[in-house]
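## Example pair
The file below holds two records. Each record gives the amino-acid sequence first, followed by its structure token line.
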Amino acid sequence: MKKRNLTLLITVVLAALLLGTVSSAVLAISGREVMENVDNRDDGQTRHALMGMDLIDSSGQVRDRVVEAWSKKIAGEDDLNQTVMVFHEPESVKNTRFLQIENQDTDDDQWIYLPDLGRVRRISGGQGGDSFMGTDFTYDDMKSREIDDFTYKLLKEESFNNYDCYVVEATPKNPADEQYAKTVSWVTKEHFIPVKIEMYDKSTGKLYKRMIVDSKIEKVDGVWTVYSTVMKNLDSGHQTHLYVKDRNGNYLLEYNKDISDKRFTQQFLKTGN
């Protein structure tokens, strides 16, 4: 079973991309059960969204981008997805295209097409810690994870941004395979959507990055949906704001529409069609 971890952000925005005091009562759900509910949440068979991607430096200066993304469950693999992203603006990144194919029991496949190079390049395992297109997400952040590769601890229950949440700590069983020492997620009890995720540096053990959902959670086509998230690097002060954009006055975000499998190919990366 795959766990949609940090890319849940991109997946949550696409799909809708991965935690007071402790109650004196016995908690009725375990940390693993919370994350299983996150993984099993309905996010549609297909997703399509137009997104703004603002890169904000520590002084507040913004570089804005426009990205369109499509995602579809792989036939016969209900817990695996294929996702393609196309950069439309600005001109410096226009027609850059990224493809990810999730795999069971092995790392996901990732490729990127850079117009200046005119060819498709595979993202190697050694590049997993590199920034994705100058954002605060790495290529590893984009990948899915096996839920069995982590141990989970329900730390407490508390409110965050007016949502009652479970707070769950996830620690990798094989630390060498992961870029973070641990993550802590605030998961809504009503929707099982992470609305806050803290990522801890593997070398120092200190809090390194924080992702926060800064929009309401609403239903679109019957699917609980998030419209806006922010990922911040606490060391550099740089942050990435990812949000659903409108086209012709309407938000472009839809589920369960037909998407051709041809879109999720290296040929599409090369040609855009």
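Second record, same layout:
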Amino acid sequence: MTTYAGIDNVRAVADAVLYEGYLLYPYRSTSGKNQSRWQFGVLGPPGAADAGLGEDSSMSTQVVVRSIGDCRLSITVRCLQLQRRRIEQATGDGFVAVGDLTVGATRWVSWDEAIECEVEIGPVELANVGTGIEFPLHFEGGSETEVLRHNDVVEGRVVRSRSSLHGSVAVSVEEVGEFSRVAVAVHNRGGSAATKDQAIGTSFIGAHQILTIEAGQFVSLLEPADDAVAVVVGCAQHRCFPVLAGAPGETDIVLVSPIILYDYPEVAEQSGGALFDSTEIDEILSLRIMTLTDEEKAQARATDPMAAAIIDRCDAMSPQELAQLHGVLRDPHPRMLPELDDEIPWWSEESDTSVQPELDGISIDGVHVAKGSMVRLKPSRRADAQDLFYDGQIARVALVHGDVDGEIHVGVVLVDDPASDMHDWYGRYLYFAPDELQPLSSDAVTGKEIRQ
């Protein structure tokens, strides 16, 4: 069951996906980079891709569900709908479109905005889906006008308009033993477009889905359980990829993203707010924003309330807040932590000779593991069938070393092996990768547990 914290986490990541590429540095409407803002999850109208006017009209995913009852699937489709903002200046004969207009102390510019769209489909009984069922998808168009006055004199107006979006969501289910391979496809069913402007105006922008399951469990496509590997291998993806989302360990929610993510993605805690800037680096963007002139900042503020919020946040950023954006290294690959001599600079040649497998360590799940550390064995790479017999056994780390290919190997001896002292004496160790080891605290390793 998804927790409240898990739902909040999914929403935060989904919002980041939704607005990725919405604003591009330096955010001013005159920036060449901002002439091609919409980059991820764009579903163009039919035929737009072939005509070179827009993007493919569909995205599709297949997920694997382990049934534990009468499974019910809910699909939340989210996207941005383009909204044209046209600035018109008042004249004696009415209004005329202009690129920008200053009314009082406020500057207005013509600009493409976007509004959030979301619809939930289901819950759908998977047992009743069979070879396919299709649901209509529709977001209304419309227009609004805002009159701009200064000292009770009408000086202009803002006209916001958007085209309606038409599409569909198709769902099909294939039963594979105790698993269900569920296919979800989102299609743009709108009319054809004659220009690039028409194409993007009738596109689903930043499209993605949040899938939730009742009475079932989603299987990770990145790290599937052994009995699900064959089903996962048969899955096909088109312009998106599904990852487990929510709090780590939860299996009832999936985020189908047009951006490559790991399972259980999170927004970095160091990030003080969204920058919407096509996966750029927060620190670099913040520093560059601080270098803008007052006139450039005024131009950026005029484009969009979100751009104005970014400028204001960077202007108010303290040195401590800026510092926390720097120096956090996230590496999915473990690295050795050598015990270097304090008298030897780390950049010198002599430091290489101070790397000692008997003293070096590695961080596993945030725990420093080195010689003498206790670990539980979790063989998973299936390189040696004999390794499977060690699953769950407790071992003592004897050394940590790396090879020329950058791989790290941890040598261990089994605590429950009567010949462990002999193996340790002449250096005959069992070797495992760091992700096959679970660190144990000394308090957790009791004589009773070892004998089990």
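Notes on the second record: The first strand starts at residue 58 and ends at 91. The chain has two domains: 4-323, 336-451.
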